[in-house]
Fold this protein.
Amino acid sequence: MGHRFVHTFHLARWLSTNARGEHEYSAPEPHACRYQGSIKRLVAADGTDATSEAILFTHAKMELRDTVYPPGADTEDVGAGKQPLRVTPRFDLFGKLDHYEVYL
């Protein structure tokens, strides 16, 4: 699927949280992706739900605490970054990790 990654997003990885609850992130790094708008309702096993606005397909591994700047977002604007709602690894027919689907 990597040949279909025609967009670029930026990923700021979560580093730590201080005693006041403020989060510290790495500098945003560019990664290749395929970005498509898609409204989808996500329901967790505990019954909580959220609505995603887009799906990002990428090879970059990330966690729910990281901040994602979608294609076209200004990395200088802290409010432009989004926390992933769900990160799902996808495997190929041979069981190897192929890519991640990230719901924003």
